[in-house]
């Protein structure tokens, strides 16, 4: 496996008035990376500054955090040239490792803006070491620590400053080595960047992880079209493939999230969660669905949410919420008759 531990530094608009902000909210100004061998050794390094073309004034927060000034960046090369050298250095079929979910989104946006080939035309698989740290060392759910916390947790020597691209990539690689020594199985929990959803049904993502299943759909015209697809509402158990008996049908609390609760005769309670993501190219929505086996405590949380929605609808005949569109794809789910 060709693992590339990457970290980016980026600048952003100081005014928010530039027309480019919608297409490139963050412009990469530094790429740092290390090649990571399966034995946990760092075998090669990459570090280059990038001369910005969109945001020519350094944002105050960026300047304070990464200790870079525009005068230094003027000595850098263009994004096109740096990224070309970077991908040549990466070699074939790299598996990217990051600390947190942001870097892959930003590099995809920058590649798109500058007219360069994307990492992938659809979702990009990568390893989020921040998530793996939570899985191996903490509760594995919503707790996410910063990189320095993880470095201190493992007693790693802090011999170079944080908050520069190469140093953060270097520390991430050292932390990853300790994570995998503690629990090598967590490497199976691959993450997906969904800046660009699957182009068609053939390229939809369906992955079964040790503790849950994830499905990333193609783009639908709108929310109703998404719910007409039986795959969207399906609640088959990801361990045995059998249809789960529906205990609580799919419902929404008025945002883009939907929940349900089922029960597999063999494996127990199954919690479903759908997030409906708006999409601009093409315009519409796509679905990210997870199915996870849960205990009575987590099932009770779903039931509490459902009862809250049901109580609301008793007193508001217009639904919960009253209005929904493709760009705001929430609201009651059409009556679910199962699979």
Task: Break the fold down into its secondary structure elements and pairings.
Blueprint: E1 3-11, E2 27-36, E3 42-49, H1 60-66, H2 70-73, H3 79-90, E4 95-98, H4 102-113, E5 124-128, H5 129-137, H6 147-153, H7 165-182, E6 191-193, E7 205-208, E8 212-220, H8 223-228, H9 230-233, E9 245-252, E10 257-264, E11 268-280, E12 283-293, H10 296-315
Parallel strand pairs: 1-4, 4-5
Antiparallel strand pairs: 1-2, 2-3, 5-6, 7-8, 8-12, 9-10, 10-11, 11-12
Task: Looking at this protein, list some descriptive labels.
single chain; 339 residues; alpha+beta; Nucleotidyltransferase, domain 5; 2 domains; 6-stranded mixed β-sheet; 6-stranded antiparallel β-sheet; 12 strands
CATH superfamily of the largest domain: Ribonuclease H-like superfamily/Ribonuclease H
Query: What is the overall number of helices?
Result: 10
Q: Which CATH class of the largest domain is shown?
A: Alpha Beta
The separation of the N and C termini measures: 39 Å
Determine the fraction of residues in helical runs and give it as a percent range. 25-40%
The CATH architecture category of the largest domain equals 2-Layer Sandwich
Structural class: alpha+beta
Global mean pLDDT: 90
H/E order of the elements?
Answer: EEEHHHEHEHHHEEEHHEEEEH
Tell me about the largest β-sheet.
Answer: 6 strands, mixed
């Amino acid at each position: 496996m060709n693992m590339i531990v990457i970290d980016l530094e980026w600048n952003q608009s100081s005014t928010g008035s530039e027309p480019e902000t919608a297409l490139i909210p963050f412009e990469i100004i530094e790429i740092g990376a290390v090649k990571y061998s399966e034995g946990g050794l760092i075998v090669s390094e990459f570090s280059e500054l990038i001369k910005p073309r969109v945001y020519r004034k350094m944002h105050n927060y960026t300047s304070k955090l990464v200790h870079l000034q525009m005068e230094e960046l003027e000595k850098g090369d263009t994004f096109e040239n740096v990224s070309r050298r970077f991908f040549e250095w990466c070699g074939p079929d790299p598996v990217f490792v990051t600390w947190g979910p942001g870097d892959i989104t930003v590099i995809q946006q920058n590649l798109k803006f500058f007219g360069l080939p994307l990492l992938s035309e659809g979702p990009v698989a990568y390893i989020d070491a921040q998530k793996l740290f939570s899985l191996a060392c903490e509760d594995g759910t919503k707790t996410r620590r910063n990189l320095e916390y993880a470095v201190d947790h493992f007693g790693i020597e802090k011999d170079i400053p944080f908050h520069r691209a190469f140093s953060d990539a270097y520390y991430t690689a050292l932390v990853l080595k300790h994570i995998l020594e503690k629990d090598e199985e967590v490497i199976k929990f691959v993450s997906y960047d969904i800046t660009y959803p699957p182009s068609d049904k053939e390229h939809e993502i369906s992955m079964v992880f040790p503790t849950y299943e994830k499905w990333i759909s193609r783009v639908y015209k709108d929310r109703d079209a998404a719910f007409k697809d039986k795959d969207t509402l399906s609640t088959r158990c990801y361990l045995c493939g059998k249809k789960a008996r529906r205990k609580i049908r799919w419902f929404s609390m008025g945002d883009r999230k939907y929940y349900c609760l089922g029960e597999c005769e063999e494996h127990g309670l199954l919690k479903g969660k759908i997030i409906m993501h708006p999409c601009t190219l093409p315009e519409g929505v796509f679905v990210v669905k997870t199915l996870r086996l849960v205990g009575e405590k987590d099932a009770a949380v779903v039931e509490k949410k459902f009862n809250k929605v049901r109580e609301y609808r008793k007193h508001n005949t217009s639904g919960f919420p009253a209005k929904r569109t493709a760009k705001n794809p929430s609201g009651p789910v059409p009556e679910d008759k199962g699979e």
